[in-house]
Amino acid sequence: MIRWCKNCRYPTKNKTCKLCNNKTEPLSEEAIPVFKHEKIILSYLLDKDVTSEQVWNLGRNYYLINGERIVVNYSSILNNETEIEKIRENILNYKEEDNEEFSNFVEGNKQHLDEIIMEANQYIKETVSKYENYQPIVSWSGGKDSTVTSDLVRKTTGNNTILHIFGDTTLEFPTTYKYFEEFKKDNMFTPFMVTCSDKNFSELCDVFGPPSRVMRWCCSIFKTGPISRSFNDTIGKKILTFYGIRKSESASRSKYLRTVQSPKISRQIVSAPIIEWSDNDVWLYILSEKISFNKAYEYGFRRVGCLYCPNNSMWSEFLSSIYFKEEYKKWKEYLYTFAKGIGKEDYIDYIDTGNWKARQGGYGLDNSMTKLENVECNLYENAQNYFMKKPITKDIIQYMKPLGDMKIIEDKGEYKLIINHLKQGDIILQWNENSSLIKVVINSDKNVSLLYKRIECQLRKYQTCILCSACDSVCPLGAISTLDKYIVSDACIHCGKCISHFNGGCLINKTLYKSKI
Ligand code: SF4
Ligand code: SF4
Ligand SMILES: [Zn+2]
Description:
By secondary structure, the protein is of the alpha+beta class. It has 3 domains: 2-100, no CATH class; 109-324, Rossmann fold; 368-512, no CATH class. The chain is 35% helix and 18% strand. The strands form 5 sheets. It has a 6-stranded mixed β-sheet. The chain has a 6-stranded antiparallel β-sheet with strand order 14-15-19-18-17-16, with helices on one face. The protein has a 4-stranded antiparallel β-sheet with strand order 4-5-6-7. Strand 18 (426-432) and strand 19 (437-443) form a beta hairpin. The chain starts with a strand and ends in a 6-residue tail after the last helix. Bound molecules: iron/sulfur cluster (SF4) (2 copies) and zinc ion. One iron/sulfur cluster binds next to helix 15 and helix 16.
């Protein structure tokens, strides 16, 4: 619980104010500093000038303005371009002055900050020495949490040359790209590895539909896929990644552990020095250590990430409509077209109310490529003929590699693949080059239906694959690469983890799944 000193007007965790010795009062779970740009917006919404007041955000649309709790309502002007234009004008006409005054906040909480820094330092030192054979790196996103983590790790290790990795989704806030350039200038000795997908977000939206809260296909493709590909290509060693994740960010993150094997990128231990910090602690660090930060926070954004993330709040979208006018407009137009295309009669409402974010499955989208067609073959036992929706070429062999050690027999365009599947029997695949028919025979008495499920995952991958790169981060050994073609290297030990990692084998199938009801 954060408290408030009425006398010195600043939030603190101390029951007695360190500056005036008065008793402090309970305030709220969070207290986030509010900067000038946001104060201009608040002034407009409240119809009174609060630009020179002490303002703290207490979570969502609750504010403390000059010691008084106020709920700020903005829903009535969401999507109202005339009102938004007036706010934009107010911001433009505002002349930058000196930075806000946070000296009481910094002075009154000095002891608390020293304690949490000391604890984080100790943890970082212990983690680095425990994983001494791992290459330490910092995952940098341009957000406040990774900014603080970077500062802490570099100061604790005394090493400014620790590698930073910036997974550029290509969809970051424009302020993030600016801040990235500033950060590099201010920290000239800190090397950066920037990873970036070669995929085009809007083209993939045409396949998958816009990412929704339950179908966030974009993270694998634009973030984890390119990062693990770069790790596989450039860093031979095991990796110890420091990142800025914190429990108070969301209920799902509240269960995170401080040091764990990465669930998304293998070969990697992830470590979260500020996992227990509150937003208030993070701001205390930034303002006390006087480190620069992403301008988006001055604008009023609470979180910095992708422009089009379905997890962005209404407030964040409201701010995007003010500050990132063109990008926002384009995205909204795309969403309207999409909603119309999938048959939503009330498409404007569907988008404006944010209902599209709860979209599940691929209703209204074409998922025919994910469907496999097959008939039983009467000539052999346990045999099926599959009719593929694209010509079968040698490329299919790569998709079959995870199933087991294989022998390839080729005779004038006729292929036979004999796969020894996990010591459970042989799988035989037969096809003619460029035909659409492939015969699958299973020489085993046990688990026949399970084996078929696995084969179908790989056949579906072959049929559906658009090299989206999501598979790259699935293999613990980094054996899968989808740069120009789907390649499974000889590092594959046939552990089978990649086979049904995505429902039915492929992220497209998982995302476009339509239940039968
Ligand atoms: S098989 Fe599917 S998930 Fe894997 S890279 Fe291809 S399109 Fe992406
Ligand atoms: S996860 Fe990697 S090692 Fe395991 S089967 Fe797939 S490619 Fe092979
Ligand atoms: Zn006080």
